[in-house]
Design goal:
Strand content: 15-25%
Largest sheet: 8 strands, parallel
Structural class: alpha/beta
Shape: globular
CATH architecture of the largest domain: Alpha-Beta Barrel
Number of strands: 18
Strand order of the largest sheet: 6-5-4-16-15-13-12-11
Number of domains: 2
Oligomer: single chain
CATH superfamily of the largest domain: Queuine tRNA-ribosyltransferase-like
């Protein structure tokens, strides 16, 4: 059976691994490079779908398998007609596997560790916030990983649950996104090479089981494509092994997951994308600041997702086009914390670009945050998403014209 996900490359940039293309899905096309807006629980916090697609111009949204499983439940989403109908998202959609929650609730929980290592990545143990004292005593974390899958407690009510590759795929079938992702283990940047290899090998075994689970559902196979996930942490040889192993499997595309050194991001992506099949899309999971998107595109990635635009927007920080450009002629984006006193009487637009939110001044939006008005996070989130989505579109134009 032919895949419901097609990828056509329109232009290769001869001097780099960058390419511009189109991913075709049952709910429309995605022109790449593209930023994938994160709507964790079937909603981008504080935004209506009309804001997301008509104002921001987002082509595709990603929802979280773990969170929708816990609330409202994947069976309910299926009963509602799937994610597109349930959330009024009449655009291409992606669900992740829940694998990142293995990372965030397991090795990294309570330690201040992110997907980017800083130097040698020293863990900061902030203490655990678990519901089960017995579980904390036995394991010291909210989830337990074994060969078959992951046992974890809900962050909502402390109830115990179990994810296996087969269960993750079944949940994603119920949710009904156009692109689903094989179950994987995302490790902490602080994990040593021995554990990174152990987790990577387990991810490869889970990838085979995920494909088999997907192929056993004939109806889902007609409507949903599946991506495998490259792992290997900060070790280039492990990343290359992972790319070779997953390239041999029948995936419709690939996610590049796990932890990176920010300084080595480009090199880590390059060695992987030189191996992955040229004719299949590549998604960089959970990373999407402007400089990261550019590095990702130049080193062969097609799509990106990140919670940062709305997460920082909700607390008063905005992306701002400085009016300056980098060596590629692309805008240099900085961050401004509008809560700072210097913006109290700043009656200039939010930034120097073309954001539709530039009808509002920095002083006004600061006022909204200080007054704790809901409109503040709403406007800042729209602005930040518009900025990052349209920055990525400019990167696409750069690839097409160079």
């Amino acid at each position: 059976m032919s895949s419901p996900i097609k990828f056509k490359i329109e232009k290769h940039q001869p001097s780099t691994l960058a390419r511009a293309g189109v991913i075709s899905t049952p709910h429309g096309d995605i022109e790449t490079p593209a930023f994938v807006t994160v709507g964790t629980k079937g909603t981008v916090k504080g935004l209506k779908p009309e804001d997301l697609f008509d104002v921001v111009g987002s082509q595709v949204a990603l929802a979280n398998t773990y969170h929708l499983f816990l609330q409202p439940g994947d069976d309910l989403v299926k009963e509602a007609g799937g994610l597109h109908k349930f959330s009024n998202w009449d655009k291409p959609t992606i669900t992740d596997s829940g694998g990142f929650q293995v990372f965030s609730l397991g090795a990294a929980f309570g330690k201040g560790v992110t997907k980017f290592a800083k130097g040698e990545a020293v863990e900061e143990n902030a203490g655990l916030n678990v519901y089960s004292k017995e579980l904390a005593t036995q394991h010291g974390k909210l989830c337990v990983i074994d060969e078959e899958g992951v046992t974890f407690t809900s962050h909502i009510d402390g109830s115990m649950h179990r994810f296996t590759p087969e269960r993750s795929i079944d949940i994603q079938h119920n949710i009904g996104a156009d692109i689903i992702i094989a179950f994987d283990e995302c490790t902490s940047p602080t994990a040593d090479k021995e554990y990174q290899k152990e987790a990577m090998d387990r991810t490869h075994r889970w990838a085979k089981r995920s494909i088999m689970a997907h192929k056993h559902n004939y109806e889902a196979l007609k409507k949903q494509g599946i991506y495998g996930v490259i792992q290997g942490g900060r070790w280039l040889d492990l990343r290359q092994d992972s790319a070779r192993t997953l390239s041999s499997m029948d995936f419709d595309g690939f996610g590049i997951g796990g932890s990176f050194s920010k300084d080595d991001l480009g090199e880590s992506l390059r060695v992987v994308n030189e191996i992955l099949p040229e004719d299949k899309p590549r998604h960089l999971l959970g990373i999407g600041e402007p400089e990261d998107i550019l590095a990702g595109v130049l080193n062969g990635c097609d799509t990106f997702d990140c919670v940062a635009p709305t997460r920082i927007g909700r607390t008063g920080t905005i992306y701002a086009d400085t009016g300056r450009v980098n060596e590629y002629g692309l805008p240099i984006i900085e961050k401004l914390n509008l809560n700072n006193a210097k913006f109290t009487r700043d009656f200039s637009p939010l930034d120097g670009g073309d954001s539709p939110m530039n009808v509002y001044t920095r002083a006004y939006v600061q006022h909204l945050f200080k007054a704790k008005e809901m409109l503040g996070p709403h406007l800042a989130s729209i602005h930040n998403l518009w900025t990052i989505v349209n920055y990525t579109k400019k990167v696409r134009e750069f690839v097409l014209t160079n």
